[in-house]
Amino acid sequence: MNRLDYNLVVIGGGPAGLAAAYEAKEEGVEDILIIERDFELGGILQQCIHNGFGLHEFKEELTGPEYADRFIKMVVEKKIDVKLNTMVLEVTDDKRVYAVNKDDGMLEIQAQAVILAMGCRERTREAINIPGTRPAGVMTAGTAQRYVNMEGYLPGKEVVILGSGDIGLIMARRMHLEGAEVEAVLELLPYSGGLPRNIVQCLDDFEIPLKLSHTVVEIHGKERLEGITVAQVDDNLKPIKETEEYIKCDTLLLSVGLIPENELSEEAGVKLDNKTGGPLVNENRETNIPGIFACGNVLHVHDLVDYVTQESRIAGKSAAKYIIGNVDRRKEEINLTAGENVSYIVPQKLEIKDNERKRVDLYMRGSKPMEQVKVVISAGGEEIMSLKERHVEPAEMLVKPLPQNFIKDLADGSEVRVDIVREGEDDE
Ligand SMILES: Cc1cc2nc3c(=O)[nH]c(=O)nc-3n(C[C@H](O)[C@H](O)[C@H](O)COP(=O)(O)OP(=O)(O)OC[C@H]3O[C@@H](n4cnc5c(N)ncnc54)[C@H](O)[C@@H]3O)c2cc1C
Fold it and tell me: In the listed set 308, 327, 346, which residue is the last one of a domain according to the structure?
């Protein structure tokens, strides 16, 4: 086995890993290694050839590969080591990383700090148990995205998409532009899981129907998909038999959720949040294991890559502080709780030191679409701040600051709670 030593090992060379590694280098860390299992850096962005990336970060509308390219160039300029085609198999709590590739064979790398940046994977047909036969032509929307945008294959000609998350919406437009007939996008819930701008630009602009409160109840076909039976669902999301209809199609694309890739994290003893599916972290994006950090989609699923970059900078900076030894002993612990109409908050807790009481941005999602609301932040049952929001969608991440002057006065052990309430409700 080959043995190596690095100050920092970053697992995953997507936008999260790239920004974290760059930031750590900027902060003075030498000997950084990025490990990526694919043949190139950039992560999932390399297959996202549509535009819409970088509006926050660069004030420009870039495609996914363009956005990735900017960070890849920065990492190359900083001479950060990269191992491609290398799969990380295990991480231990004492920060040993086991990986394998065909040139080095097995590698054991001892790191001082590790950043987890493995992204997420898509839920498949098996995860949602669609009944019927098992023909070719049923795949995740991301798989189809890779076939079309990177490998040059069109997976089918008559397409139905189940799930109206962003990847599903973007693939509806892509399949249409490539000449396929997109019969419909079906969504189980009464509202779409995608960003409003994607519904307009990917469905409305091409007259692709969106059928809310609908699902697939049977798959037909032996060798190849021949059609599907779809049905409307009731308020309990149960299919209504009388509404069943058959749609002829040769391809069913699934866009039914993303799962943070945390098998390595769990094996290392990293505690996960069952709401996000990612590690429980403090404001430095440090997990329960000192020196193991997490950022990007492995931490929680992001809708915009710009937020991935912001968050990964925090992880990179914090890992640098940990390595360089510039960290105080942890002082006060404050828990953050997702209250009414909030599905989760990241970070889940603050572990602030007296000399580091600075603004912390909270990343959160509303649990249902709501209009004219207030995001209410309270501590010890007392309202501290209330921020107006015209519109909240589960698909759109909200970023709200906890200002420095607020953090300054928080006592050890206190709980900060965030609720989303309709305007006027909390005044009654
Ligand atoms: C199919 C799909 C399509 C998407 N489309 C869009 C879009 O159009 N617009 C948008 O804003 N966002 C999109 N997203 C969201 C997008 O994932 C994030 O914006 C961003 O790419 C997340 O960055 P990341 O670095 O956390 O993850 P990723 O980009 O997924 O990068 C993670 C990297 O880690 C590597 N890795 C994982 N496990 C290991 C291991 N054990 N060893 C070595 N390497 C490993 C992976 O190969 C990958 O390169 C999409 C996500 C998916 C899954």
Answer: 327
Quick one: the chain helix, strand, coil %, rounded to 5? Answer: 25, 35, 35
Distance separating alpha carbons of residues 385 and 378, to the nearest angstrom: 7
- Parallel, antiparallel, or unpaired: how do β-strands 181-187 and 210-212 relate? parallel
Check pocket membership of 291 for ligand 1, CB cut-off 6 A: no
Q: Name the phi and psi angles at 237, rounded to 5.
A: 65, 25
The residues near 369 (Cβ < 8 Å, ≥ 6 apart) are 191, 391, 392, 393, 394
Residue 231: beta bridge partners?
A: 215
The CATH number of the domain where 399 resides is what? 2.60.40
- Residue 296 CA to ligand 1 centre (angstroms): 8
The DSSP call for residue 253 is: E
**What atom of ligand 1 comes closest to residue 122's alpha carbon?**
53
**Do both 307 and 292 map to the same domain?**
yes
Range of the domain at 61: 1-122+258-327
Judge contact between 415 and 337, C-beta under 8 A.
yes
Q: Report DSSP letters for 224-251, one per residue.
A: B--EEEEEEB-TTS-B-GGG-EEEE-SE
Atom of ligand 1 nearest to the CA of 119: 27
CA of 308 to the centre of ligand 1 (A): 10
Question: 165 in ligand 1 pocket by Cβ < 6 Å?
Answer: no
Q: Which residue's CA lies nearest to atom 34 of ligand 1?
A: 12
Residue of the CA atom closest to atom 48 of ligand 1: 43
Give the pair of three-digit tokens for residue 5.
Answer: 């030593």
The pLDDT tens digits of the residues spanning 382-428 come to 888 899 999 898 888 999 988 877 777 777 888 999 999 998 765 54
Q: Is 13 in the pocket of ligand 1 (CB under 6 A)?
A: yes
* CA distances from residue 25 to 8, 31, 83, 321 in whole angstroms, order as listed: 10, 9, 17, 11
The verdict on the CB of residue 258 being under 6 Å from ligand 1 is yes
Q: What is the pLDDT of residues 319-373, one digit of tens each?
A: 999 999 866 555 678 899 999 999 999 999 998 765 566 789 999 999 999 999 9
Q: What does the alpha-carbon distance between residue 64 and residue 42 come to, in Å, rounded to a whole number?
A: 9
In total, how many domains does the chain have? 3
CA-based nearest residue to 62, from 306, 231, 270, 245: 306
| Nearest of 86, 167, 172, 87 to residue 122 by alpha carbon | 167
Same-domain status, 110 and 4: yes
